[in-house]
Amino acid sequence: MEKVTLAAKARAERGRKVNAGRKEGLVPAVVYGNKVDSTSLWVTAIDVKRLIKKSGESTIIELVIDTKDKRNVLIQDIQKDALMGQYTHIDFFQVNMDEKIENEVELVFIGESKAMKEMGGILVKNIDKLLVKCLPADLPSHIDVDISAIDAFETHLTVKDLKISSKIELSIDPDTVIALVAPQRSEEDLAGLEEKVEADVTKIAGMVKEEAVTEEKKDKKDKK
Question: Do 136 and 101 meet the contact criterion of CB atoms below 8 Å apart?
Fold first, then answer.
């Protein structure tokens, strides 16, 4: 497991008082866990951004509070400002390194598919994260999905095709499709789909009847 550290400071501010800290580039946070008292914190926004960019959100972090209190944590939740995209609050969950945890791990698609490059297909991702169970030290920051194995439209990548450590448990069906490459639809296909949709609309229960009633009301109005 890659060692990742993040500095934090104990926080006494609550409510609207945290806005002053946000203006200084700080993010209010909290750390909690099983049989652990919650602690309010400040973390630096730029440090969090660098950490996530380098290691992702599903990695064990050594949170160092006030330079001395070290805790192993996972990012449990990140709240962002809807307009600016800035972090507004972060929840950290303290883990016991001797107990297995469940956490979602991001799938990273790598490689080059022959079905895409030579046949002009489009990559279809059925899953972008997997729920895994393992000891915190064995938790991967991501799982690679090599799409170079997809050399035809009939080839599907499934969960059992992934290269995952035996220390990691998965609850999902191993035959679940993760990704495939589908052929692009021609303009004729798309036009046919549009025609089919328009035709199907008229078959909806009540649609024809409603149009008839509308015409009947219009005729009565014109006679008046």
Answer: yes
What is the rounded (10 degree) CA torsion for 172, 173, 179, 182?
Answer: -140
Q: Are 87 and 42 in contact (CB under 8 A)?
A: no
**CB-based contacts of 18: which residues, under 8 Å, 6+ apart?**
11, 28
Give the mean model confidence (pLDDT) for residues 91-115: 94
CA distance 77 to 111: 30
Q: Look at residues 150, 5, 16, 122 and name the one whose alpha carbon lies nearest to residue 65.
A: 5
Question: Which residue type, as a one-letter code, is found at position 64?
Answer: V
Q: What is the mean pLDDT of residues 43-72?
A: 93
Distance CA 61, CA 72 (A): 6
Tokens representing 133?
A: 């169970």
- In the chain the first and final C-alpha atoms are separated, in Å, by 83
Determine the average pLDDT of the residues in 107-111: 95
Segment 194-221 shows an average pLDDT of 49
**Structural domains in the chain plus CATH codes:** 4-95 (2.40.240.10), 102-182 (2.170.120.20), 189-223 (no CATH)
pLDDT digits (tens, 9 = 90+) for 154-177: 999 999 999 999 999 999 999 999
106 close to 140: Cβ distance less than 8 angstroms: no
| Sign, CA torsion 186/191/192/193 | positive
pTM: 0.73
Q: How far apart are CA 57 and CA 67, in angstroms?
A: 23
Instruction: Return the amino acid letter for 80.
Output: K
Look at 3 and 80; give whichever has higher pLDDT: 80
